[in-house]
Automatic annotation (TrEMBL):
Record-level GO BP terms: DNA replication
Protein name: DNA replication protein DnaC
Phylogenetic lineage: Bacteria, Bacillati, Bacillota, Bacilli, Bacillales
Source organism: Tepidibacillus fermentans
Domain annotation AAA+ ATPase: ranges: 76-203
A GO molecular function held by the record: ATP binding
SUPFAM superfamilies hit by this protein: P-loop containing nucleoside triphosphate hydrolases
Domain of life: Bacteria
Length: 223
């Protein structure tokens, strides 16, 4: 029979250890989230673009529902091709999805196409191994988000490597989110040499979602 003093002592020690273990777990969890965020490439500004700061209107509610469905089905389900004019919320929605999935401990790579192209340009005349490393950088996460596709004209080299990135996602059956201001025809033109093959794969992998309405940048500036 254990006497009462010993029992009280044991209970207190267990409670204390449990509290310490919970604290260590919470710290580890936060560290992992911070690392996932910094690896994702989501800048400080984009970390504030969440669903809670997204105002719903008749012009964007379909996109919002599609984004929420995408998260619920993740990592299954189709990707998203978010299109529409300047300032209608395409990047905001894409960043909100990234923030939400990172909170669920998924790995996400979020990059503007201009940054992707700069990296690809740096591989020009480099070994096949360097190019494969770049392709791996963009395809290893659970989700790739390419912001502003078509914004920059492509050379034969950048178009070919971008094709290899998209094709790897396609072959691995991984999800992808693309934002763009352009129609498919214009995208094809802007993406150069392999434009046709890139747009064809994106069309198969993604659900097209159109955002419309006024430019939120102008709306926010005048309010
Ligand atoms: N529904 C919304 N509620 C609140 N703020 C919004 C909403 N949609 C967009 N914004 C804000 O308006 C600004 C422009 O939005 P965003 O960058 O997502 O536009 P975009 O469609 O990606 O434009 P672009 O084609 O120029 O890249 C951002 O500051 C964003 O947070
Ligand atoms: Mg944008």
């Amino acid at each position: 029979m254990i006497d009462d003093d010993i029992l009280t002592f044991l209970r207190k020690s267990i409670a204390k250890n449990e509290a310490e273990a919970q604290k260590i777990l919470a710290e580890e969890r936060q560290k992992r989230l911070d690392k996932l965020l910094s690896d994702s490439g989501l800048g400080k500004k984009f970390r504030k673009r969440t669903f809670s700061t997204f105002k719903v209107t008749k012009d964007n509610h379909v996109a919002l529902t599609a984004a929420q469905n995408f998260i619920n089905e993740f990592p299954n389900g189709k990707g998203l091709l978010l299109t529409g004019p300047v300032g209608t919320g395409k990047t905001h929605i894409a960043a909100a999805i990234a923030n939400e999935l990172i909170k669920q401990f998924y790995t996400v790579i979020f990059r503007n196409v201009v940054d992707i192209i700069s990296l690809i340009v740096s591989t020009y005349h480099q070994s096949e191994k360097t190019i494969l490393e770049i392709i791996n950088t963009f395809t290893k996460a659970d989700l790739l988000i390419i912001d502003d596709l078509g914004k920059e004209k492509m050379t034969e080299h950048t178009s070919t490597v971008l094709y290899q990135i998209i094709n790897k996602i396609y072959e691995d059956e991984k999800p992808i989110i693309i934002t763009t201001n352009f129609t498919s025809e214009k995208l094809e033109q802007n993406l150069g040499e392999r434009g046709n093959a890139i747009v064809s794969r994106i069309t198969e992998m993604c659900r097209p979602i159109v955002l419309s309405g006024r430019d939120w940048r102008l709306k926010n500036a005048s309010s």
